[in-house]
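Target chain:
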Amino acid sequence: MKIGRLPCDDKTNGWSAILPQREPKPALSGDVAADWIVLGAGYAGLAAARRLAENCPDQRIALIDAGAVGENASGRNSGFAIDLPHNVGSLLDELEGSHRFMRLARFAIAHLESMIETHGIDCDWSRDGKYHTAVSPRGVKEVLEPFAKELDGLGESYQWVEKDELVEKLGSKHFTAAVYTAGGALMNPAALTRGLADSLPDNVALYESAPVVEATFENGIYLATPGGSLRAPKMILAANGFSEQFGFYPRRFLHLAAYASLTRPLTEAERDAYGVQAAWGLTPANAFAGITMRYTNDHRILIRQGLDYCPSQRVSDAERAVARQRHKELFDQRFPMLPDVEIEHTWSGIVCLSRNSAPGFGQLSPFVWSAVCQNAVGVTKGTFGGILAADLATGRENPLIADMQTLGEPSQLPPRPFLDIGVRARFQWELWANRHEA
């Protein structure tokens, strides 16, 4: 089959722009044979390739990506490794489901920390946790108070932060209250992705800037790129939202464009005016109306706000310019003591969601296994999905596979244009109904 849509690297990712220049691995050249192919070098693909190398030390693993590592969606997120579910139910079966998710997420975080320590990956990884914040009293009542109650049901510790204490932690009077949980981590996601790619085992060959333009899945795997071809008897699919281009998961995934901006580093005088010493990260009570923010260890402030329905998986420079202006306005509202701080980088990233928040995980054919659709929690979900897909494919016993399988399968979406109309109407409703959290 011919591949109709390829990933597009727009060279705007701020996380990689602030890093030293990296020399990508060569693209695929000529005809190459391997024992395994891993398609996609994001968190899932990197974890799957590493695990395959561990499980099959005498076999050759080919990891291939359409772009440069760190420039894909894995390097463009907000840099949170989240160990808790975003929304937790209070029923016993829902709480048990949350325990399973936390086992998976904490397994992934422990794996990433081990890789960072073992290979000396410099990605600004820090166990700073996160603040789940509400702007309005309504947001406190409808989101934070139930969240705190549910954390009690899970036996998870947290801190309730409000008023002057919250201003002291975040340096902004914009928020009413927050639930702080300490289990997660913050990082530069592009640096983490680069470091994982540059420390792969010797029996993994990484091919970057090698977009697949043709694929065949009969009696094994055949992938063709502009510069060569790749053959193997088995494959792990880790192409996330582009999986449907290869004939898998048709009408299962929603594609959204998310926008983020990163300021220049604050000067010493600006840091004094700001008055906050420690790095922090916060997530909003409502993802549509609110904003995700971070204060980094190099004294930058990140703002991620704005979600657009984006079935084309393409974002224009004009759309990013609109986001940049909006982010500057939001920054000025929250940090009036920093009037001269400018936005240095603005970028977009494509988020893959399923209708029922389930991942695309499991065996798809006698030759293909998958770890795709992380539903906007890619650092942890991609990592544990990739590891467990490799274990499943190689027959390695792992009790966490059963936990993974309980997360379900992506449900089917309505056909277009009904899907487009419904999604856009839902977005407008969410923005209006949750405007109190803006």
